[in-house]
Amino acid sequence: MKLTILGCYAATPRSMTNPTAQVLELNGHMFLIDAGEGTQIQLRKNKIKFQRINHVFISHLHGDHFFGLIGLISTFSLLNRQSDLHVYGPKGIKEIILLQLRLSNSYTGYGLYFHELESKESEVVFEDERVIVRTIPLDHRVYTNGYLFESKPGDRKLRIGAIEDLGIDRCYYQKIKQGGNITLDDGTVVQNKDITYDPAPTESYAFCSDTYYSEAIVPIIKGVHALYHESTFLESEAHYTERTKHCTAKQAAAIAKLAEAEVLILGHYSTRYTDITAFKTEAEEVFDGTILNADDGVIFDL
Amino acid sequence: MKLTILGCYAATPRSMTNPTAQVLELNGHMFLIDAGEGTQIQLRKNKIKFQRINHVFISHLHGDHFFGLIGLISTFSLLNRQSDLHVYGPKGIKEIILLQLRLSNSYTGYGLYFHELESKESEVVFEDERVIVRTIPLDHRVYTNGYLFESKPGDRKLRIGAIEDLGIDRCYYQKIKQGGNITLDDGTVVQNKDITYDPAPTESYAFCSDTYYSEAIVPIIKGVHALYHESTFLESEAHYTERTKHCTAKQAAAIAKLAEAEVLILGHYSTRYTDITAFKTEAEEVFDGTILNADDGVIFDL
């Protein structure tokens, strides 16, 4: 599981700070999460093979989270993309994109599918044999979802030595990988756990931005491996959180603790702060796990 | 008259090249012409006091000329802008911007006025006591206008020595500046030209991008001081111009020659070229005046 931060600063893009966008690589997928203005430029700067992105997840329709989507969709067209692109986001995103494609007379040559969200309950929005993605309803000034990405367990791993000792034929290997017990010719039943190892552990990543402090999300993300949680403010500006519906680093840490996350990644910093290490320092007072400061261009191997 | 090139490359933004956007400072105005993705970042990088921009002129609704407009409009809101902003561009631009503001629940706190264009004839779109701006209908794949910016002549300048020798009272100075003749007490009529100098010469700038080769624009821009004319291709790729409705550098030079422009500024280069000096070389074969290569971040004092 690899996370590339393309941008993690709040509000407007600047010379040195980019609005929210990140790329999650998980079990063979490359997911784009949010797409602030300049996302396609950041993808190029970070040398990401962005034609591999087939799924884009937009949290909400504030400009710093989606103004870069139309540019990326257009560039895919100019690059003669063929494969389908799926966009998940709040109701309205389809109208915004299609209006611009229509007025510029530039419909895409590839399949462009919108999955518009309206539910206030967590729901599965994407699933295949490798990964499952659910929404995390957040509490912000407009309708907003975070996303929980989980890899699925692969096959169990064969204990070849034990299997050969028992004289089990190769034709049963697939059944064993899938967890089945085996009955030998003499009637003995061999338990699956005695001839396999557990599959590689699953991985999970929760993206939670933008949001007011909300313990309602804890049951959804309980036990998540890595949690990206917005921390727009430090404690000295905590009084802004209610009106703006954002969080402090300490609040992000409190959610990480309640959710028993292993890793907390802080981001969506207000551009009023010049030193982001203070976010980590404040979060450490609350959360004992690993705490990482997101920053533009940083790659986390999780 | 000062022109700052924020971006002058065709198609998609890249790490090192920006799509079309430029700032023209003329007779006290600061005009933004086109606004490709990343315009607000380029404004910051070039340290332009962009709150001074009150008028934005959009040539056409291809993404590389307007995808940065919504971000700029939103940023003006976040910066608590108070003064009106006027946007001139093809019909549809209002719907694009207002839809995004509505869905992000972020209407502007300042006056945002759209002047949508549909005419295929040149028309005056802005005029005050200092400047007049007209459209230049262009021939592109979608409805497109260039813009001609002209400063207006100021007052005539007094020849103080001659005026004092004639004993003309100060109360007539305003009348003289405005071109009036004076009748002396003895009935002699003093011609204005004998007691004034001509006002400072007017300045003019024509922005023509994107367009196929079109001599129809020549009468509109005849005698223009500085002409920015797109030159997407070199001669070796001239066969692309018809399908894409773009020009070569030589064609841009031919228009500059017919229009008797003093200065030709080349830009909107296809990103297939790594060396833009070749555009100037090819244009020089046709046009004898000054030829400038636009490039991102370059400032021309015209």
Q: How would you describe this protein?
A:
2 copies of one chain form a homodimer. Chain A is of the alpha/beta class and 302 residues long. Chain A has 2 domains: 2-154 and 200-301, Ribonuclease Z/Hydroxyacylglutathione hydrolase-like (Metallo-beta-lactamase, Chain A, 4-Layer Sandwich), CATH 3.60.15; 157-197, no CATH class. Helices cover 23% and strands 28% of the residues of chain A. Chain A is built from 10 helices and 18 strands. The first copy, chain A, has helices at residues 39-45, 63-66, 69-78, 93-103, 160-165, 173-177, 218-221, 241-244, 249-258, 277-284; strands spanning 2-7, 21-26, 29-35, 55-57, 85-90, 112-117, 124-127, 131-138, 144-151, 157-158, 182-183, 189-190, 196-197, 204-208, 226-230, 263-267, 290-293, 299-301. In chain A, the strands form 4 sheets. In chain A, strands 6-5-4-3-2-1-18 form a 7-stranded mixed β-sheet. In chain A, helix 9 (249-258) crosses helix 10. The longest helix of chain A is centred in the N-terminal third of the chain and has 11 residues, at 93-103. The termini of chain A are close together. Chain A binds chain B through residues 11-15, 37-38, 40-41, 44-45, 61-63, 67-68, 70-71, 74-75, 78-79, 90, 92-93, 95-96, 99-100, 103-106, 141-142, and chain B through 11-15, 37-38, 40-41, 44-45, 61-63, 67-68, 70-71, 74-75, 78-79, 90, 92-93, 95-96, 99-100, 103-106, 141-142.
